[in-house]
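Figure 6 in text form: structure in, sequence out.
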């Protein structure tokens, strides 16, 4: 990308979009087009088409999404599917209609089958059933990925999709009901420390394995790929390392400084038993994550203490 190219970051106030924005600014890109949700509702086709017709961005990072953890997904399946699919289709279609040179679509590792081979290669997409608790979100993300792929095949566009593992870091969502597992644990242990609670109850039995990527590392990959990767295949983004939820809870507890007990509510769902991405494609392209999990959690906790997004809703926009 030329340093003067017009770049639109969709969802620039969310965790992923704000990290991409920071990385672009760090690298000297300054012709950035930004709109808040109040200024531009991406679920409204007419608004999106008018925006693209007026601004004509050359590059688009599509990080806007409605996101949330198990509870948020399970309680609003229709909303997650409709809002995400509508935003994606509106933005990708308008970008294509207005001659956008490149678009990068941000998805999620939940697009892969619940019982996919581990680690999960990009090629295992659509080879098995999805995890029920986030099926609606996954179907929307698969649709966005496939629409980019089909535009490339039919019209010769140069759009790409990045599928990150579980993300965390600055500007995360710490909502008590809608957040993902790591920010939820940070908030829960912090509040227990503050109130002197003798016990913190976590969902499931602690056995699922999860992989976590610091969001600034993802942002570096996103800009790198926009600059250098050309192909019609998805690129996974992760660390290649995993940790049980039980070990994660213990790690967060130590970093936060909580000294009480950790209990497990086995009546609550575990979610997918394992979700480790095969990141060999990104590695072969020359990228590797930089932030180890403990260091990243310390930074995330510092962000939480500074205010973070403790009660923000679940739209990454």
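Output sequence:
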């Amino acid at each position: 990308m030329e340093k003067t190219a017009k770049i639109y970051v969709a969802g620039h106030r969310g965790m992923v979009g704000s990290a991409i924005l920071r990385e672009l600014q760090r690298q000297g890109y300054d012709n950035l087009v930004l709109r808040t949700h109040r200024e531009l509702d991406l679920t409204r086709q007419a608004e999106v088409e008018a925006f693209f017709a007026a601004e004509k961005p050359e590059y688009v990072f599509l990080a806007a999404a409605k996101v949330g953890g198990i509870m948020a997904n399970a309680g609003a399946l229709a909303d997650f599917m409709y809002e995400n699919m509508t935003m994606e289709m509106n933005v990708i279609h308008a970008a294509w209609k207005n001659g956008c040179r490149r678009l990068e679509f941000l998805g999620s590792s939940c697009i892969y089958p619940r019982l996919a081979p581990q680690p999960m290669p990009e090629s295992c997409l659509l080879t098995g059933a999805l995890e029920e608790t986030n099926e609606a979100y996954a179907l929307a993300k698969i649709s966005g990925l496939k629409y980019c792929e089909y535009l490339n095949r039919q019209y010769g566009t140069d759009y790409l999709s990045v599928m990150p593992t579980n993300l965390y870091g600055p500007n995360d969502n710490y909502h008590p009901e809608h957040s993902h597992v790591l920010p939820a644990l940070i908030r829960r242990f912090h509040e227990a420390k503050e109130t002197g609670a003798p016990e913190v109850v976590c969902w499931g039995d602690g056995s699922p394995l999860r992989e976590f990527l610091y969001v600034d590392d993802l942002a570096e990959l996103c800009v790198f790929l926009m600059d250098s990767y050309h192909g019609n295949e998805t690129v996974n983004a992760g660390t290649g390392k995993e940790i049980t939820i039980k070990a994660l809870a213990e790690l967060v507890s130590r970093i936060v400084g909580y000294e009480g007990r950790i209990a497990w509510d086995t009546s609550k769902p575990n979610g997918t038993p394992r979700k480790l991405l095969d990141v060999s494609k990104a590695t072969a392209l020359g990228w590797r994550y930089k932030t180890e999990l403990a260091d990243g959690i310390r930074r995330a906790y510092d962000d939480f203490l500074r205010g973070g997004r403790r009660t923000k809703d679940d739209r990454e926009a």
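Caption detail: Residues 50 and 276 are 40 Å apart (CA to CA).
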